[in-house]
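Q: I'm writing up a methods section and want to include an example of the input and output format. Could you take the sequence below and give the corresponding predicted structure tokens, formatted cleanly so I can copy it straight into the document?
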Amino acid sequence: MFAFNAIRNEEKINYFEKALSNLSHIKYYYLEALYYYCLYLKETNYIYYRIKIKEGSELSKKFYYQYLDFLFENIENKTYLTYNFSYSYYQLDSLENFVKKHNENWEREFKENKFDN
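A: Here is the clean output for your methods example:
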């Protein structure tokens, strides 16, 4: 948050770097912060931007964060694409069936345990 409010470039970079350091143990939030850092670097430091966007793209694929992968892959896209979830992104053949089966179970359980006010 400090990086978004900082005025000077050096100050913004320091805040982004500190945030990334503090978030390194939380993969999703690290990548989300890295995405916003890349948006900033795209406008100010193209060389460092290329390094960071490559890191973000590789890590989002490695950890199967489909939405973040979409964001990194489309950061330079001027047309605003719509994110579409796809089960085929994941290397589990039965994932879609698992989700459908359990959604039915969870929906039934929710209806059975619904509290009337």
